[in-house]
Amino acid sequence: MPIVEAVILLVVLVLASNIISHYLTFIPVSLIQIGLGLVMALFWQIEIPLDTDWFLLLFIAPLLFNDGRRFPKRELWKLRGPIFANAIFLVFLTTLLGGFLIYLMVPKMPLTVGFAVAAILSPTDPVAVQSIAKRVHLPENILHLVSGESLINDASGLIAFKYAVAATVTGVFSLSQAAGDFFYISIVGLIVGAVLMLLIQFMRDVLRRQGINDVIFNTVLQIMTPFVIYFIAEDVFHASGVIAAVTAGIISHTRNNHLIEDLPELHLVTEKTWDIIVYLLNGIVFVILGDELPTATSHIIKNAQFKTWQAVAYAFGAWVVLLVIRVVWIYIYQLVAQWRKKTEKASFRISLLAGLSGVRGTVTMAGVLSLPLVTASGAAFPQRSLALFISAGVIIISLVVAVITLPLVSPDDAQPLQTRASLSDMDADDLVDTDEDEDSDVPKAPRLTDDQSRIYIMRLAINAIEEHRRQENQRAAYDLILDYQFMIRRMEAKSKDDGAIQRVANDEVALRRVCLTGERQAIERLFEHHQISKTGYQLAMKRLARSQRRLNQADQASLTLIIHSWWLWLKHTVHRIIQLARHQRNPKVENERQLIDRESAKAAIKSLSKYLGREDVATAELDKQAIYHLVVFYRNRIERAKSDDSFSREAYATQVNKLRIVGLGAQRSGVQTLLEAGNITWQMAGRLRQYINYSENVLMMGEDEE
């Protein structure tokens, strides 16, 4: 398949996997991507030959460079002992002990091939762990441990695999040569990565002093850095390009802290560019993994020497061997650390979590597919097909078992989730109210999630826009408020449980029925008084009938509030485009439509007000945001239904921009308030301010284009 078409197809499948993941939230996106890759191989018969060298250069080098660049320095230093123990000693222990046990378990498999299989299965895959961790809320120390060791264990695993394969091919193995080779490529790789990264940063500083500080240039320079460093380390110094890329990423991270304030635009552009690259590379890696599964398994399935169920049993047995070795190693390490009084009491659950989190991935597949077909004597490589099948099976088993068991073993986080959900129902003033007596035992201010913080500052923006709303800018104000409301409702739907979402949806359905009743009465009154034509009356009643049907469906099905709101917004926009075209042909029809919209909206607000004033209505139990949302929605319709003679698009654009600036200023003040109250961390405050800065940049770019 031509490379261009293959790249396009891979990117499309990555996008499709994330869409599917949005609906199948219980399945990690990595497994969905593997499934799509498998479909691509089986049904479309598309194969992408996987070569270890180019795979490590194009995928592993930039991904590990980015991991090193973003890995928390404090956690990396704090966990340096277990990270290096797992990344080096555990890899070699797994290779020797695991390889010997696989040799005993699988008949006719030579010992050196068992070592090769265990060696290539020893590296863990941080990408898969991150995908799983998003859904099971792994403890941070476990996540940092698995991520940290994966920065290094690729190199040690590939070295062990290389010498096990060489021993199989040539029949000769030298322990001293293997040990010397390992120390050479590791230490030299570390030195090469550090020196080259410092040279690149020095060159960048020199260019900046010469006035070459273009953001795009510097961004491309940083993106190319891991590829260049990996290539030089591997081809020039014959060292570990993986370790060189990781080292360069860590050094880049230490220096970036001094550049953020100096070049904020470079920092923002670089981070977002890396987000896009990592998003695509992570997804493509697992799609390719799924595409390679038939290649790795088809030969053993067709082989008469082993039955398929036997091969599956061998794969499961190999996974059990690797898991037991890993869990026992980590538990013993905890006991030793406890004995030396460096850590808390050893926990078997922590060991089991770390063991299950060590899933295998694409480095394993890329390595095992590089097994040679023949040995030095010309004979076929012994049990190559079975080695491929076992490796592919362990990858899938480790992923699936982690998805199923990690939620059961990980600490119960139902209470934190309940706390976070309850915070979203609190008032903005309640969230930042930290006044307390010094003598009283008052709990700390509640920590907010990203969505809750954004909801809070968006409500501040709405309040600020309301304060600056005047007769001349009402249309712009209501448009902005309605946009903020849509975003707030969407984020609220994510932070609440299904029961809370359904209650809010039920409230809005009931309130919308009241409003529709008022609209219908107003339209009938206009028709009875001959203020609108029969055609206008019929069109308006059809519109109300469609809205009524949607509300009925919302009662019968579990239709969320946000879906309903976005549908109304889309319908209103399309309706405005159609009516604008009609207005150019028939001003009388447009004037009649404006009259219907204006009077029906007024009647809806009046009907809603009467309903809320009734004694039999429990107003306190209704969702206040739903009420406010409806009022703004109808006020916005009234403003849009006014005569276009008094409407100036230039003045409207100016009013919108002024109000947006007011709203952004209120959001920035809200971030500072939350930070001072202890409701958010410095990191979250930085992300919120970054979001506000982006909004300001978009606003200024729009003004420049005009």
Automatic annotation (TrEMBL):
- The chain positions of domain Cation/H+ exchanger transmembrane read 12-408
Q: Which keywords, in A-to-Z order, does the entry hold?
A: Cell membrane, Ion transport, Membrane, Sodium, Sodium transport, Transmembrane, Transmembrane helix, Transport
Query: One matching Pfam family, short form?
Result: Na_H_Exchanger
What GO molecular functions are on record for this protein?
Answer: potassium:proton antiporter activity; sodium:proton antiporter activity
Membrane-crossing ranges are 6-24, 54-71, 83-106, 182-203, 215-233, 273-290, 311-332, 352-374, 386-409
Report how it sits in the membrane. Answer: Multi-pass membrane protein
Tell me the GO BP annotations in alphabetical order: regulation of intracellular pH; sodium ion import across plasma membrane
Location relative to the cell: Cell membrane
A single GO cellular-component term from the record reads: plasma membrane
**Protein name per Swiss-Prot or TrEMBL:** Sodium:proton antiporter
